[in-house]
Amino acid sequence: MNETDNTESRIPIVLIDDDEELGRSLVRLLRHEGFAPDFFADGETALQAIAAGNYQVILSDIAMPHIDGIEMMRRVRQYDFDIPIILLTGEPTIDSAKKAIELGAYRYLTKPFDREELVSTVRSAVFVHRMAKIKREAAELQGQAHHGPSDLLGLNIAFEAALATLWMAYQPIVRGGDGSVFAYEALMRTESKTLPHPGAMLSAAESLGRLDDLGRHIRKIAPGPFGNGNGGGDALLFLNLHPRDLADPLLLETGTALGAIADQVVMEITERASLDKIPGALDAIRQLRERGFRIAVDDLGSGYAGLTSFAMLEPDVVKIDMALVRDVDKNTTKQKLVHSVVELSRDMGISVVAEGIETPAERDRCVELGVDLLQGYLIGRPGPAFPRVNW
To answer: Positive or negative, the Cα torsion across 317, 323, 328, 332?
Structure first.
């Protein structure tokens, strides 16, 4: 490609460097190779152009006055998770290279540049950007959620945005005898399009090392509707604990909204949890009990590993996994398993919840098998405090 080719076919990119002489040299090189570079000598002006433009790649010097390359990345990732960012530096260090890659730089190139390496890196970045766009369009066409941010910097920004819009939906748990409300389970929801469901939020928190932040926020807002006239009455609050929450030093802090209603709260811990790998887990559970909290084992029947956790927890409530509840009215093996859980739990003074009730036949069979409590879409879908019960 040469300078006489149609400029409309060129690939728009941004070049940011406070060394204007180097910038002009790179502009000539990139134009010769078929790109349409817009050059900026300061980050602020470049950011305005990026926000308004349709660029496919950003090349930015790391060390610039006012807004350096890392800050520029942070700002861009607030609204664009896909555009590849290539960071440039004349003073490479191991720490700066490591930080650049960890925070999501597509590549980290040192000055003076090898011409072929620079051009091939930009071309590769263009390919990655176009592929990301295709994946997002395909996801939209199939009615799926957008793919999330691909780098830690973008992921952290998305996590912060999702955390700011996080709210709790409440799903009723009713007594099998008469359908009266026994409790509501608080379930995490967000308005985020990049982290749109609880699994995505938990995965992001784990990747970022921010499970404590997520758990603390949930424990802060979940008790809000209880005891303030929103219709909860004397209902209990079931609240999921991530196993890692048991190692959070703030789990047991005094003076919290959750602690104020401890005698109404049932902490759920999944049967899948490996509590022996969590430092101080048993001591944390002991202290929770001493403060009035009750303990539930969630997902009972989802795997064998949880039997150890079950014995360690000595729960007040067990929740039968929905995989055992599904079609229990038609499957005699599942009926025997549910009946065995009910009998064993009754002998130990443990209440039993059947999760995932979706049909009247499942509901009725669980009641016949002696299940104390029922939860599922048939009974009530999760919603703002507090959804109506169907019985």
So the answer is: negative
The domain total for the chain is: 2
Taking 3-state DSSP, the helix, strand and coil percentages for the chain, each rounded to the nearest 5, stand at 45, 20, 40
pLDDT digits (tens, 9 = 90+) for 323-363: 899 999 999 999 999 998 899 889 889 999 999 999 999 99
Q: Which domain holds residue 253?
A: 163-374
Q: Is residue 194 domain-shared with residue 121, that is, in the same domain?
A: no
Q: Is residue 72 part of a domain?
A: yes
Q: Are residues 107 and 204 in the same domain?
A: no
Q: CA 336 to CA 365: how far, in whole Å?
A: 12
Q: What angle do CA 28, 32, 73 make, to 5 degrees?
A: 65
Within-domain flag for 366: yes
DSSP string across 278-346: STTHHHHHHHHHHTT-EEEEEEETS-STHHHHHHHH--SEEEE-HHHHTTTTT-HHHHHHHHHHHHHHH
pLDDT on residue 377: 96
383 CB burial (10 A radius; 0-12, 13-18, 19+): middle
Looking at the predicted structure, is the pLDDT value of residue 118 above 70? yes
In a domain, 33, yes or no: yes
Query: What count of other Cβ atoms lies within 10 Å of the Cβ of residue 197?
Result: 13
Looking at the predicted structure, is the pLDDT value of residue 208 above 90?
Answer: no
pLDDT in tens, 153-176: 678 878 888 899 999 999 999 999
In order of 21, 39, 134, 164, 260, the CA distances from 26 in angstroms are 9, 9, 29, 41, 63
Tell me the CA end-to-end span of the chain in Å, nearest whole number: 71
Same domain, 137 and 239: no
Going by pLDDT thresholds of 50, 70 and 90, the confidence category of residue 146 is: low
Dist. CA 72–CA 70, nearest whole Å: 5
Adjacency order of strands within the sheet including 57-61: 35-40, 11-16, 57-61, 85-89, 107-110
Place of tokens 């049967």: 271
Helices vs strands, H then E, count in the chain = 14, 13
Q: Which of 124-133, 198-207, 275-284 has the highest mean pLDDT?
A: 198-207
What are the distances in angstroms from CA 140 to CA 147, 247, 345? 10, 39, 46
148 versus 335: the higher-pLDDT residue is 335
